[in-house]
Specification:
Pfam families: Chromo (PF00385), Pre-SET (PF05033), SET (PF00856)
Strand content: 15-25%
Keywords: Cell cycle, Centromere, Chromatin regulator, Chromosome, Differentiation, Metal-binding, Methyltransferase, Nucleus, Repressor, S-adenosyl-L-methionine, Transcription, Transcription regulation, Transferase, Zinc
Helix content: 10-25%
Bound molecules: zinc ion
Distance between the termini: 70 Å
Shape: globular
CATH topology of the largest domain: Beta-clip-like
Catalytic activity: L-lysyl(9)-[histone H3] + 3 S-adenosyl-L-methionine = N(6),N(6),N(6)-trimethyl-L-lysyl(9)-[histone H3] + 3 S-adenosyl-L-homocysteine + 3 H(+)
Number of helices: 5
Mean pLDDT: 87
Number of strands: 18
Protein name: Histone-lysine N-methyltransferase
CATH class of the largest domain: Mainly Beta
Subcellular location: Chromosome, Centromere; Nucleus
Number of domains: 2
């Protein structure tokens, strides 16, 4: 029996740092955990929860990692080496509700001290959420989360997904053929995959879109002869930029900013969510209207049969705000599924975007007809709010663009 168990292992339910804390609590040295006689007495500051000045000396109330709050101690500044946490405390105090606070000899007013603890808890919750998002994403671009504005934590009832979640009553039509090109860009046999439906090749050699908005993108698929480095595979490779979900300071909730420079016409992200029928969208729209949220995106490239609902299932695009002067533009993309009623929605940069800039798209975008024969391009790629337009109240726009239309819908 024991022999059969050789090489078996069971995961430990405690994390590395929890085990180290246990050692310190029990005054146990453990070489495997790196707890030696020299560092047995070291303690790690989890956060600072109060602050006082006695004569000319500053003291901070420390919550120690792995210890209950009852074990908090006042420490003089010279004992603390946590520069980042000290800076954070002073930033938090400057933003605390009720204005900047001055400490007395007994510490901060209760309201300010409780704000510090809430900020610490919020940061912990946001770090956990950030880890969850990054362990769920299948794309290269990392996601960071930041709220230096208020006490909002991670959104409730939101599940990160990487591709469309197909709802009840929706069937995809898998692609049956691929192209036979030797080089999809330079020697496209029969116009490559876009050519099969009399459309243009969408990308240049750098993967930047070169056809105008309103025209569809047909990418190479699993049945094509070309490999993953084919220039006609862009959207299918997913998000490649590191992006940050941040809390906006002017009442627009969460937003998304890029942490890297993005070149004009580059693919940035897909708008994914649950695909539902338009009837279902109508029903949900009435509920969402009351909550004032806008996550329904009508797929009306040919006919208005399906809608993408990103309210509860979505990717980082769920957090991208509207702007009347946006830096992202929507394209309809077909890859493994050729049903024209079910395009994938891809967002491309309309201009060069600097690192640190917020990403936005126009929730109510209209794409002009490309030419007389293709009247079907005369569609509204708008993010529908659902329900009848007359029944809705008008939503004020806070995008701040010089050309702001003042109302979202
Ligand atoms: Zn090809
Ligand atoms: Zn192909
Ligand atoms: Zn190809
Ligand atoms: Zn606006």
């Amino acid at each position: 029996m024991a022999e059969n168990l050789k090489g078996c292992s069971v995961c430990c339910k405690s994390s590395w740092s929890q085990l180290q804390d246990l050692c310190r609590l029990e005054r146990l040295q453990c070489r495997a955990l790196g707890i030696t006689r020299r560092n047995l007495g070291d303690f790690e500051v989890e956060y600072l929860c109060d602050y006082k000045r006695v004569r000319d000396e500053e003291f901070y109330l420390v919550k120690w990692r792995g210890y209950p709050e009852a074990a908090n101690t006042w420490e003089p500044r010279k004992n603390l080496r946590c520069q980042g946490l000290l800076k954070q405390l002073h930033q938090d105090l400057a933003r605390a509700p009720g204005g900047p606070v001055r400490p007395g000899p007994r510490g901060l007013p209760a309201r300010a001290a409780s704000y510090l603890v809430q900020k610490a808890e919020q940061r912990r919750a946001l770090r956990r959420w950030e880890q969850l998002l990054n362990s769920t994403r299948s794309h290269r671009g990392r996601i960071t989360v930041e709220n230096e504005v208020d006490l909002h934590g991670p959104p409730r009832d939101f599940v990160y997904i990487n591709e469309y979640k197909v709802g009840a009553g929706v069937n995809l039509t898998p692609v049956a053929v691929g192209c036979e090109c030797h080089d999809c860009l330079a020697e496209a046999a029969g116009g490559c995959c876009p050519g099969a439906s009399h459309n243009k090749f969408a990308y240049n050699e750098a993967g930047q879109v070169r056809i105008r908005a309103g025209l569809p993108i047909y990418e190479c698929n699993s049945r094509c002869r070309c490999g993953t480095d084919c220039p006609n595979r862009v959207v299918q490779k997913g998000i490649r930029y590191n992006l940050c979900i941040f809390r906006t300071g002017n009442g627009r909730g969460w937003g998304v900013r890029t942490l890297e420079r993005i070149r004009k016409n580059s693919f940035v992200m897909e708008y994914v969510g649950e695909i539902i029928t338009s009837e279902e969208a109508e029903r949900r729209g009435q509920v969402y209207d009351r909550q004032g949220a806008t996550y329904l995106f009508d797929l009306d490239y040919v006919e208005d049969v399906y809608t993408v609902d990103a309210a509860h299932y979505g990717n980082i695009s769920h957090f991208v705000n509207h702007s009347c002067d946006p830096n992202l533009q929507v394209y309809n993309v077909f890859i493994e599924n050729l049903d024209e009623r079910l395009p994938r929605i891809a967002l491309f940069a309309t201009r060069p975007i600097r690192a640190g800039e917020e990403l936005t798209f126009d929730y109510n975008m209209h794409v002009d007809p490309v030419d007389a024969e293709s009247t079907r391009m005369d569609s509204n790629f708008g993010l529908a709010v659902g329900g009848s337009p007359r029944a809705r109240g008008r939503i004020e726009c806070k995008c701040g663009a010089a050309a702001c239309r003042k109302y979202l819908f």
